[in-house]
Amino acid sequence: MKKQSWYMLLLLVVLSVFLVACNSSDEGTDSNEGTEDTDTTTDEGSEGTTDEGATGGVLVYGRGGDTVALDPAIVTDGESFRVTENVYDTLLTFGEQDTTVQPSLAKEWTVSEDGLTYTFMLEEGVTFHDGTTFNADAVVQNFERWAAGSAEQFYYYNSMFMSEGESVIASVEAQDDTTVVFTLTRPQAPFLKNIAMSPFAIASPAAFDQLEDNPVGTGPFKFVEWKRNDSITLEKNTAFWKDGLPKLDRVIFRAIPDNSARLNALTTGEIDIADGINPSDATSIQSNSELQLIERPSMNIGYLGLTNNRAPFDDVKVRQAVNHAIDKQTIIDAFFQGYAEPAVNPMPSTISGYNEEITGYEYDPEKAKALLAEAGYNGEEFELWAMPVPRPYMPDGQKVAEAIQKNLEDVGMKAKIVTYEWATYLEKAKNGEADAFLLGWTGDNGDADNFLYTLLDKDNIGSNNYAYYSSDEAHTLLVQAQSEVDEDKRNELYKQAQVIIHEDAPWVPLAHSTPLIAAKSTVQDYLPHPTGSEALTNVSVK
Amino acid sequence: MLQYIGKRLLHLIPVLLGMTFIVFMIIRLIPGDPAQVILGQQATAEAIAALNEKLGLNEPWYIQYFNYLGGLLTLDLGESLRTGVEISKEVWPYLAATMELGLFAMFLAVLIGMNAGIISAWFQNSFFDYAAMIIALIGVSMPIFWLGLMEQWIFSIELGWLPTSGREDVRDPVSPITHLYLIDTLLNGRFDQFITVVKHLILPGFALATIPMAIIARMTRSSMLEVMRSDYIRTARAKGQKMSIVIYKHALKNALIPVLTIIGLQTGMLLGGAILTETIFSWPGIGRYIYEAIGFRDYPVIQSGILIVAFMFIMINLLVDIVYTLVDKRIKYD
Questions:
Q1: Of B47, B83, B153, the CB nearest to A69
Q2: Crossing angle of helices B252-271 and B87-122, rounded to 10°
Q3: Taking CA atoms, what residue in A is nearest to B50?
Q4: Which family is it part of (chain B) (predicted)?
């Protein structure tokens, strides 16, 4: 008897839970409407007193992964910068949708003739979220903190401002409360661009030891809460130093790992913006009147690396033949749905120093066959590595690899497609174990150095020069360009380097893709930045 | 009984020890350098070497292993290589999320699966029996990622009844106390949020429940069929007892033992984290925590995460063994 009553009790509990759940599905929407109502009333209230856009509502930003840490100085991943851009400010910043240098916490700056002294005049009356004052001392303390740390702790500081164990920055001094003077040990052409990068955000010195999970900056939004692997909530900084901004009351970043599930969440309105849209979903988004498709300006390169010290790609003629054999336009139409431009050089044309005169290897299988014959290629099979994960510069590595395989087969080259789990893939490719491999790169600061030197200089073999391309000629030019302060002369050096790289053909540059984002049609003034992270200061939700 | 539990707990030690060793070795056999993954594609060789040194990854494997074991003895689960946070500090919210979802799914699976099995057995070879068992067969073989996306499409997008993903309405977040949101919302006195949390549980709960539900239904049916053929049931029926009493009082009790075993094993598996369900429904649970750690070669998280899951698996099965004695008084552990 006892057992039976237990069972009945259980059934009763279940039934009541279900009934409650069913009942409240109406109640639930009611209460939702209730909160929306209060939102709109505050909307109206504030609209009555101030200009439009003073209250912009709540925005939920859906993305593929969670943040690693909230201290931009110690991280390297885009999903961390995406949040920290909204909490902190940098001394300088980039243009809304380009990488021109613009004032931020530093309202003006001067550079000495020799390019060794930079003087920054700071904004006045700026306070950190913890109430402490932002001033020249705070800037000095931030740079001192990074300089005192080790290479693995402050990765970007060391890669941008250290070279061969020597610091580019000799000293950072506060001349007075609002003036900071940087003295360099040698001229660094992209110095201002580097200073504008997300990792060099100014944090409150009083909060240095807790930035990782409780960031304190001067930015448009204040940190509220982080539920790991789930959501990060920021709220409006009412004391923000730019008047009337930000427009949004709250921003919530939500991690939704599956691309289709993220789009589903956008369709139901659980999120307002969905990052990382598959190009194949673009048409269905455009045909939905409640959604808008937003293109992130392209600053990337997807390429097929040909490991230069492995047969058959140790022969420049074979590498050129592969360049002629691959039909880039067809690949772009099929797998990027047209949201990409065929690549000619190893960097996109928007970056200054791009060589327009190079026309690229045209698609010509006959020429490829002739070059292969000249090289004496014996038809031996090689491995073609396909990326296992989608990346903005390569939405579907597997399919692109299959298309390339077919192109190569047409000219008599036998490629076997292999793939590895992502971390393994990178590790093995870096060790030079791949014959030919798909990979790509998204620029950090819009500087030619960040593409050409980083990806193809012989100094970077064993790190980002996965193709093991080694050219002394190119090296001389690229190193010279690093400290050339004259913009025109510097661009000329990069143009020459691109000619050499083009001749040597270490890669097949495939495409500069346009990463796609979808948003509710109610989202206004969202301008995605080519670097992949942007402050949502001007965004509002109607 | 206590002696038995004590003995079982002692058995835990060699099992867990062996497991730490196997996991430790396997994850070090996969190629891929954690320092490289942490620092990203951008990293230089020097930075990687320096980070390896700092993380102690340049030590021989046996030193690393004994360091790890030494930590475990003092209940130190290690530190995540990627986030630098102590695992013992950050693991609970993930575990709580998985427990909430897993127990909810198991609740559905037991409730629906057992009843379907009982009814199928009772009306053997009826239409209901065939239908239920065909559905169960489909349930066992249904890929979860497909089922999950279908659920989202039907119940969220087309019908608009339920949210597609997550644990809560992020616009009106739950303030965590225990990190079990069903409890937290009630502790906070927010009944509206409790409903929202239940709604968020339904789709992933059903997706996760399908397979155990189907297995439990089939197991209950066959176990019940066997018991129903026994003499004492015939006697009970001959006495003219009510059907419900025959089934629930006499038959179920004896049919329950194999079903309980299955329930225990399945619960253990669900609590091990359902990576696919957690990914599709963006559920911040322990399965995704460990899975993502594999991608990042976050060795301590993988090791300690699997250790925790294994520990729970063993504990649940111990619990099931104890429940046996409650269900069937003839079972005694001495």
A1: B83
A2: 150
A3: A152
A4: Belongs to the binding-protein-dependent transport system permease family.
B79-97: pLDDT as tens digits? 888 778 888 888 999 999 9
pLDDT in tens, A78-136: 889 999 999 999 999 999 998 899 999 999 999 998 889 999 999 999 999 999 999 99
Please provide residue A104's backbone torsions phi and psi, each rounded to the nearest 5 degrees: -140, -105
| Other CB atoms within 10 A of residue A477 CB | 24
Give residue B237's identity as a one-letter amino acid code: R
Residues 53-72 of A with CB under 8 A from B: 58, 60, 65, 68-69
Architecture of domain A221-296+516-541: 3-Layer(aba) Sandwich (3.40)
For the domain spanning A88-202, the CATH number is: 3.90.76.10
- For B190-225, write each residue's pLDDT tens digit: 999 999 999 999 999 999 999 899 999 999 999 999
Q: Please tell me chain B's helix, strand, coil percentages from 3-state DSSP, rounded to the nearest 5.
A: 75, 0, 25
pLDDT digits (tens, 9 = 90+) for A229-273: 899 999 999 999 998 889 999 999 999 988 889 999 999 999 999
Closest CA to A517 of A348, A268, A278, A288: A278
- Does A151 sit within 8 Å of B192, measured CB to CB? no
- Conformational region of residue A106, where left means phi above 0, alpha means psi within -120 to 50, and beta covers everything else: beta
Residues B268 and B180 in one domain: yes
pLDDT value for A4 = 53
State residue A6's pLDDT score.
Answer: 58
Q: Which of A268, A428, A442 to mutate to test the interface with B (most CBs of B within 10 A)?
A: A268
The reported pTM is: 0.83
For B249, the closest chain A residue by CA position comes to A4
Cβ-nearest to B280 among A20, A261, A423: A261
- B6 in any annotated domain: no
Give the mean pLDDT of chain A. Answer: 87
Cα separation values, A450 from A101, A353, A482, Å: 16, 12, 10
> Would the CB atoms of B171 and A230 count as touching at under 8 Å?
no
Q: What is the pLDDT of residues A468-515, one digit of tens each?
A: 999 999 999 999 998 888 889 999 999 999 999 999 999 999 999 999
What ipTM did this prediction achieve? 0.83
Phi-psi region of A131 (alpha: psi -120 to 50; beta: other; left: phi over 0): left
CATH topology of domain A300-513: Dipeptide-binding Protein; domain 3 (3.10.105)
Asked whether residue B32 falls in the same domain as residue B173, the answer is no
Chain A touched by B111 (CB under 8 Å) = yes
User: Which of A68, A155, A268 shows the shortest C-beta gap to B163?
Assistant: A268
Q: What pLDDT is stored for residue B292 in this prediction?
A: 86
Give B61's pLDDT tier (boundaries 50, 70, 90).
confident
Q: For an interface test with B, give the residue of A152, A431, A466 to mutate (most B CBs within 10 A).
A: A152
**Do the strands A106-111 and A382-385 form a parallel or antiparallel pair, or are they unpaired?**
unpaired
Letter for the amino acid at A323? N
Q: Which of residues 411-450 of A touch B (CB under 8 A)?
A: 420-424, 426-428, 430, 441, 444
**What pLDDT, on the 0 to 100 scale, is given for residue A55?**
61
Name residues 159-218 of chain B within 8 A of A (Cβ).
160-161, 163-167, 169-173, 176, 192, 195-196, 198-199, 202
Q: Report chain B's mean pLDDT, rounded to a whole number.
A: 86
State which amino acid sits at residue B223.
S
A289 Cα distance to chain centroid: 28
Residue A233 φ/ψ region, left for φ over 0, alpha for ψ in the -120 to 50 degree band, beta for the rest: beta
Contact residues for B96 (Cβ-Cβ < 8 A; gap 6+): B178, B179, B180
Range of the domain at B68: 16-73
pLDDT tens column, A265-307: 999 999 999 999 999 899 999 999 999 999 999 999 999 999 9
